[in-house]
């Protein structure tokens, strides 16, 4: 499917959300994108602490060429900026992660988190209003009970659909450092939150307590050598979770073995050739994202230049390594100077685990087909935004001779970074966040 | 690692060959970049992945007096400063925030017809949750 090379790329433009302004307000920068379990809802969080949820329209028989489009369903302010006076610490309202809970009734629930506080939001629909209460007037004023001479049953009238978001739980004050991950457990009762040095286990119903399950803070902070960069629960085994580090390692922990999982059950690390070590080695090996496959057999990690697929049964090295933008290796000096080397890219699986996707610079994103071993580079841009227009594969020229359609490494725009992407859990529909714009692409029908 | 290059000019080296050439020259791209960096910042610490970067990450958002270890390069100090100190203290921060809020406040939303103040509200009486001050442009 990745369609690298000739023959016409199967991916085409579907929609783009957001303003076209040249001047992007910082609050509008999208900081997380997540489909829910069915793929009918797509949530985004931004630096301004706001959440926007899109809902997929039912497929329209009169428009057979387009799959359901995503339209705004609900939007709310999830987090506000705060100031911790005791620590003299400014707490950003930026939404770091959104994770959906599996749907159990008519309402939808999601967890959203900033650096310090996790919130459980309930999104519910209201499409009826009641009239004819006994004890209240229509304007809400209580009626004088002595004036009431007859009983009536209130009647429900249809009204325009109203989607309400309300915070149901606020999980606060459990993290000294900055939260980078949240992950809902397969037991649907608990979830974990991870900061730079600790991982906590919560129960969704209980906000005043959480269990610390990983603590890598050294007794003496001078001895600090690595931090936790991401964490995730196993999709099926509720006792298993993994966390990645800034040194490029992944630890798998089993909560059955002990209450405090400081000792890992498995330790995944690729051996490094010591002769190729440089000043940048550790920085670019830092893992920015870790994701289990849907099957639960594999996990994928993203470091600065590559994506690696690991078999949980083999700790010694990944089973697959895909280069995202290897040509940047000869630009590390300037990428260090402009801080781009610290950019945290995410990665995602498709529904069947046959393909993986991750972002790059210049609004490029990369897809790797694990079966055919082909890869493709695509671009999220307004220029290729005509409805159902096929996306043209992009190529970055690394050598001296640049062909007509290629772009040279020095012309890449490093301010246009695609850090957040999401793949529909079932269909070939992807959501790509390009700074303040959200692009939705679908595979070609017909 | 090498990208498929059959379509390209056959005279160009493939990725693998290029790497061999570089190794023959004894310079891996990463090392060449490291040399460039050290030339610009001669006293760059030997252990870059260690405490300095990590402490910066942990200190993000902290306001106030922060002392920097002398071993840090001026550039690193500047980078740390750019994510930290902007306000002298919390009073300063609140004043700045208040100024920002004054600029951003749009007109209030339409009033609901509900009467308030002379009875105890029930959940049905409450107006819908206040929408955000500035709605996201994604929802526009």
UniProtKB/TrEMBL annotation, chain A:
The organism's place on the tree of life at top rank: Eukaryota
InterPro entries given in the database record = PP2A_PR55, PP2A_PR55_CS, WD40/YVTN_repeat-like_dom_sf, WD40_repeat_dom_sf, WD40_rpt
Q: Recite the UniProt keywords alphabetically.
A: Repeat, WD repeat
Signal sequence span is none
Report one GO cellular component. Answer: protein phosphatase type 2A complex
Q: Which GO terms describe its molecular function?
A: protein phosphatase regulator activity
What the record says about family reads: Belongs to the phosphatase 2A regulatory subunit B family.
Q: This chain belongs to which protein, by name?
A: Serine/threonine-protein phosphatase 2A 55 kDa regulatory subunit B
Gene encoding it? PPP2R2D
Automatic annotation (TrEMBL), chain B:
List UniProt keywords, sorted A-Z: Cell cycle, Cell division, Cytoplasm, Mitosis, Phosphoprotein, Protein phosphatase inhibitor
Biological process annotations from GO: cell division
Positions with biased composition (Polar residues): 129-140
Q: Which InterPro entries does the UniProt record give?
A: Endosulphine
Q: Name one GO cellular component term.
A: cytoplasm
Any Pfam family hit: Endosulfine
Q: From start to end residue, where is composition biased (Basic and acidic residues)? A: 16-37
Give positions of region: Disordered.
Answer: 1-52, 101-140
Q: Where in the cell is it found?
A: Cytoplasm
- GO MF terms, alphabetically ordered: protein phosphatase inhibitor activity
PANTHER family registered for this protein in UniProt: ALPHA-ENDOSULFINE, ENDOSULFINE
- Family classification: Belongs to the endosulfine family.
| Protein function | Protein phosphatase inhibitor that specifically inhibits protein phosphatase 2A (PP2A) during mitosis.
Q: What is this protein called?
A: Alpha-endosulfine
Q: Which gene encodes it?
A: ENSA
